[in-house]
Amino acid sequence: MFDVKDAKAGVTFPKGFKAAGVKAGIKKSGNLDVAVIYTEKEAAVAGTFTQNAVAAAPVFASKAVVATGTAHAITANAGCANACTGEQGNQDAHAMQTITAEALGCEPDDVIVASTGVIGVTLPMDKMENGIRQAVSELSEDGSWNAGHAIITTDTYSKAGSTEFTLGGKPVRLGFIAKGSGMIQPNMATMLCFITTDAAIDQKLLQKALSEVVDVTFNMISVDGDMSTNDMVIVLANGEAGNPKVTSEDADYETFKAKLLELCTGIAQRIASDGEGATKFLTVHVSGTKTYEDAKTIAFSVAKSPLVKTAFFGEDPNWGRVICAVGYAGVPMDPEKTVVKFGDIPVYANGVGADCDAEALRKVMEQHDIVIDIDMGESKDKENDATVWTCDFSYEYVKINGEYHT
Amino acid sequence: MFDVKDAKAGVTFPKGFKAAGVKAGIKKSGNLDVAVIYTEKEAAVAGTFTQNAVAAAPVFASKAVVATGTAHAITANAGCANACTGEQGNQDAHAMQTITAEALGCEPDDVIVASTGVIGVTLPMDKMENGIRQAVSELSEDGSWNAGHAIITTDTYSKAGSTEFTLGGKPVRLGFIAKGSGMIQPNMATMLCFITTDAAIDQKLLQKALSEVVDVTFNMISVDGDMSTNDMVIVLANGEAGNPKVTSEDADYETFKAKLLELCTGIAQRIASDGEGATKFLTVHVSGTKTYEDAKTIAFSVAKSPLVKTAFFGEDPNWGRVICAVGYAGVPMDPEKTVVKFGDIPVYANGVGADCDAEALRKVMEQHDIVIDIDMGESKDKENDATVWTCDFSYEYVKINGEYHT
Fold first, then answer.
1. Percentage of chain A surpassing pLDDT 90?
2. Sequence-ordered alpha helix ranges (H) in B186-291
3. Contact call for B401 and A311, based on CB within 8 A
4. Secondary structure of residue B176 in the 3-state scheme
């Protein structure tokens, strides 16, 4: 994982951002469920969204905000996804924007909206309205903890963090809150991530950096292979740091993008590691392929295999299931050239199981974090390497998802 | 499911076939584990095999037999897959052929060989040799039951059956034994199916009929999305029925193919229904698409979704997860036109949840066999419909696969 400056700071660590999270009564549990993040100074906004053809109402509303290039606020709720809710859903998403804008004194199209939770149920708008107004009244520089907890569902903890670096001689900050857990998979699955920064950066460059970073971070995790209707990653950049504005792909842009990559890699790993019912965090690293696409295809084939995931749950060094998943990935391969390692221990080479120290291998399997390293032996080009993060498949996963009644 | 003439008859129901199954000590449990099926009269042979790039040694050996066009015998074992066993594995697969041929008085390339079980372990050839010799000595017209039980692994029962019909005025018979359970998925997963028939049919037509039938039966089931290294479907046709030999795609060919389709549909359904830990048998039927490929893609997306499968395990009518899996299948769609039914009850239409009788829906969810019917509303052409058979995801699946140590 990665270092965070101060986990409690989260989205309010960058200058000029306030946040709040309140109990609006949307979650059955009565826990925090409505969050607002706000910057008085207008921010450049960038976003990436679920590619599910059945996208939720807030996804459409927020895409329209990103298209304007600027925003002041994010309003999000957990407990109800506002997905598959038809025209009423669109009206409710827009009402979330209008209510927030009115309370903050900005325009509706300055407000990103996001929802997560049960599909097919309309939002209780009376509760939502009260919740938004209360959250706006409670906005503060200490509000990130509450906001972070208001967006989680079956997550075992709220993901939050921040980092600080220098751009053009000025200290610049990045902060985030995120939620993951079930339905996580490539191309943005029920995953919400809100990133704030006080960097001054051109909106188009912000979007470019975000899109490229998301491709190798959030789009490279898989909990159960399901892609949600609601997911989004949003970045707000309000320029309060006072750095010379990044307007071209210069050294400052590269620094900003590298920090964003570091941050998003950490968030993606935390989301995979906290997948529903997870007891293991698995890093599937594939090298030695002729193309990056081949490596990615093989890595996902292994990371999504229920037989591989249950084997790691059982701490069983069952390399047969791994090489089997490599074999059906659809990428031409030579089993004789392929080498599979668990941790740094080779378990398969030359087409057969490798002789290895059973005791050392047992110790690897007992770890919480395990690397499955697969070298296809077709190329030495490290540029093609792909890494996918996932978790194991446990009784608890079945329990959570078999008992999570609609 | 489908009617079988006499489940005990299995592969020995067609004229001229004998079978046996013995305890050779390859399964740890000590149960039946080596099977031989034999026809003294030379049979036309057809086969389809796993498309996994990491195929097991017996797959290569048996493909070579099918290439000769004729065979006399099938020798199969459970308890050890002879996969990822390198050159030793190839030698052992050939030794299975040689030992069988010597005992029967035929040639090694007359003998199909198949193995299922743990990957990465070489066959105990002393036990195998004794087992094959004993099985050959016990070959009989009552031997199908033992042969069927000798090839199963985590199956809860041995799949076997037979059917009888008329070709050119002569009674003709088909019989089978099959095993399925874990690692089942499209394109032949750890699944073995041996079909015998006394029909007289040209080898090329037999292969054509089998390949076409397998595409819409065995390649349309999914238990966990994993494709095995070892799977195969073999048909032996010895012509003992005395029907005028089928040598063109005439009415007799169509009759034969229709009966083979009926048989293989039933077998595929039984294999899906008996998936590891299964408590529900799910039929995913997709209609109203512009192409068959679209329908197949959507059906597999739903059938392979762990969130859908755990919901049915929990008897939760969670149509949100179904429409979500439809949405990420990658097929362009209009959510407003899509209709989802569980049984005959519409649960999703016009982009939102449908009003339905909750009590009637609860009764559907309590059934063992449930149809998930998805009409995409893009076409009325029934030719494009696709059906995939699968099962739910239970605690037991995780238990079986987390505790099945190598």
1. 68
2. 203-216, 251-273
3. yes
4. strand
Judged by DSSP in three states, B203 sits in helix
Q: Is the Cβ pair A402, B118 closer than 8 Å?
A: no
The string of DSSP codes covering B66-118 is HHHSEEEEEEEEEEE---SBHHHHHHHHHHHHHHHHHHHTS-GGGEEEEEEEE
Determine the residue among B92, B123, B313, B398 to mutate to test chain A binding: the one whose Cβ has the most chain A Cβ atoms within 10 Å: B398
Pair type for strands A352-353 and A281-287: unpaired
Buried b (16+ CB within 10 A) or exposed e, B280-289: bbbbbbbbbb
Contact residues on chain B for A404, CB-CB shorter than 8 A: 314, 316, 318
CB A171 within 8 A of CB A241: yes
In 3D, which of B265, B185, B193, B194 has the Cα closest to residue B228? B185
Q: Cβ atoms within 10 A of the Cβ of B383, count?
A: 8
- Cα–Cα distances (Å) from A182 to A34, A76, A187, A397, B396, in that order, read 20, 18, 14, 9, 20
CB contact under 8 Å between A52 and B328, yes or no, is yes
Which sign, positive or negative, has the C-alpha torsion A94, A95, A100, A105?
Answer: positive
Q: What is the DSSP letter of A55?
A: -
Per DSSP, B359 falls in state H
What is the ipTM score, two decimals? 0.74
Which of A94-98, A182-186, A270-274, B331-335 is least confident? A182-186
Residues of chain B with C-beta less than 8 angstroms from the C-beta of A327: 52-55, 227, 229
- Residue B367 sits at the chain A interface (C-beta within 8 Å): no
A382 and B288 Cβ atoms separated by less than 8 Å: no
Contact B310 A187 (CB under 8 A): no
Cβ contact B11:B194 at 8 Å? yes
* A307 Cβ neighbours under 8 A, 6+ residues apart: A318, A321, A324, A325, B182, B183, B224, B226, B401
Q: What is the mean pLDDT of chain B?
A: 90
Euclidean distance between CA atoms B342 and B361, whole angstroms: 8
Taking the C-alpha atoms of residue A38 and residue A104, their distance in angstroms, rounded to an integer, is 9
pLDDT tens digits along B291-327 = 999 999 999 999 988 888 888 988 989 898 899 899 8
Q: What is the pLDDT of residue B207?
A: 97
The string of pLDDT tens digits covering residues B214-266 is 988 888 887 555 556 778 999 999 999 999 999 999 999 999 999 999 999 98
Retrieve residue A59's tokens.
């996804």
Q: What are phi and psi of A195, to 5 degrees?
A: -115, 135
Contact indicator for A394, B398 with CB cutoff of 8 Å:
yes
User: What is the Cα–Cα distance from B43 to B60, expressed in whole angstroms?
Assistant: 20
- Asked whether the beta carbons of residue A226 and residue B326 sit closer than 8 angstroms, the reply is no
Q: Which of A84, A307, A348 lies closest to B224 in CB terms?
A: A307
Task: Report yes or no: B301 at the A interface, CB cutoff 8 Å.
Answer: no
What is the spatial order of strands in the sheet that A345-349 belongs to? A221-222, A386-391, A281-287, A369-375, A339-342, A345-349, A352-353
Alpha-carbon distance of B89 to B101, in angstroms, equals 18
On whether the CB atoms of residues A39 and A52 are closer than 8 A, the answer is: no
Count Cβ atoms below 10 Å from residue A170 Cβ, excluding itself.
Answer: 13
User: Do A273 and A391 meet the contact criterion of CB atoms below 8 Å apart?
Assistant: yes
- Report the catalytic residues of B: 190
The answer to whether A1 faces chain B, any CB pair under 8 Å, is no
* Token duo for residue B329: 């299948």
Cβ <8 Å between A328 and B182: no
Q: Name the B residues in 227-246 with CB < 8 Å from any A CB.
A: 227-229
Query: Which residues, at least 6 apart from A250, have a Cβ–Cβ distance to it below 8 Å?
Result: none
Instruction: Using CB atoms within 10 Å of the CB of residue B51, give its burial: 0 to 12 exposed, 13 to 18 middle, 19+ buried.
Output: middle
